[in-house]
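tool=predict chain=A
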Amino acid sequence: MASVGIGWAGADLTPERAVLIAGQFHARVSEGVADAITATALALDGGSDHAVMVSCDFVCIPDALRDAVRSRLPALCPGLDPMKVVFNATHTHTGPEVRTPTAEGGHTSTGTGVDLDAMPVGDYVEFAVERIAQAIAEAWTSRRPGEVAFGQDYAVIGRNRRWVNTDGESTMYGNTDTPAFSHIEGYEDHSVGVLATRNDEGALTGLVVNVPCSSQVSEQAFVLSADYWYETRRELRRRLGDGLFLLPQCSAAGDQSPHLLYDKAAAERMLRLREHSPRQAIAQRIANAVEATLACTGTEFKGGPVLKHEVESLGLPMAVLTESDVQTATKEADRLHDQYQEEKRKLEADPASRQEPRWYCPVTRAYRRMKWFQGVSRRFEAQERGETLPAEVHVLRLGEVVFATNPFEYYLDFGIYIKARSKATQTFLVQLAGPGTYVPSRRSVSGGGYGSIPASNPVGPEGGRQLAEITIGVIDRLWSVA
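tool=predict ok
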């Protein structure tokens, strides 16, 4: 059987200057580097079709960054269709901000409201784009005959981060030690999907590892980090070889996180006894699952599987907003506007306060939250004009396996639905293959709370379900290929 063409490459995206860190309402200017920010590229060439998968240690993949990388590829990669390059973010909350400030952006891409001593986002994006494009070119031009194997095991990494009280109200995180606690809102997925590649000499060359959990253990830090994927890369290379490439993917996990809502004392005690950090513990679990998978699938490497890659450009319906939603959001935006102005007055009255560590956190938090709530009114106006939200979706069949992407923080209910309906033996879902924003389930919207209120989600449950149905339809179509 003919082999598939396989090429791997990586890039260091760590900036040399201080940058804004993405992932919280308050701005964070990086105060150092805990570990490298990276990109990893895997080229797959089946002859009649191809794909390049690229994973980045970012919070999301803005369209502008994606398009800038693609624009450089024709000159670097003869024969590669730039539209067949699939990007995804690991959703680390300690990676550089890559969203250029816009009025319509998410809460951390609306700017800061005050001047900060950090590398402009546009300058960092230009730096990252060049390195990502070079990595893609290296992966594409280095492809050689090889084989692939796949499998799945399980490891507890992500957990549902929303809980419901006895009145039916949902909260993200918070204190569950209360008589009002009723239950955890939704399901959890502990699968670890693995796609392994080896060269024509039989050596393991790289792994795609797919888990339903964002990488945000250290999400409050002021230093740059790939979060638990740094420890996972180290652990897998220690076990399987220093030259191993690792391409992380986050499956549907918009309502999941690596943080506990209960049993915290017991978990912390076990970390002390094992002398592990939370990130090291996750790395051990992932590595154990990967090794268990490879032990079973090591004899099943196959060359030349069916490779078919389809790209869909969708216009999804926006979450339905009411005038009451706009009034509630506007009231909160006005309150935060007053708070923002008050924080600015404090800084103007005491210029020396700008010398204090992280002086900018309160004022930037008020500014960004204000902009976040103001976005509801703009989206209501877009709704009145009948606008839809553009979304690029990739579905890649590789033998018995399918990869299906979405650009969102896609709640797990939708991911389970796609997996349940998929014709593939194994389905890899890849979220944050785009600019993000939450797509909540119907039950989560009924409970409210961050991630499931109008300010959080331009696309609602209806759009999320439509995206799932379209994805299933493309999978069905690919499975009609002989």
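The two ends are 15 Å apart (CA to CA). The chain has two domains: 4-312+389-478, 319-384.
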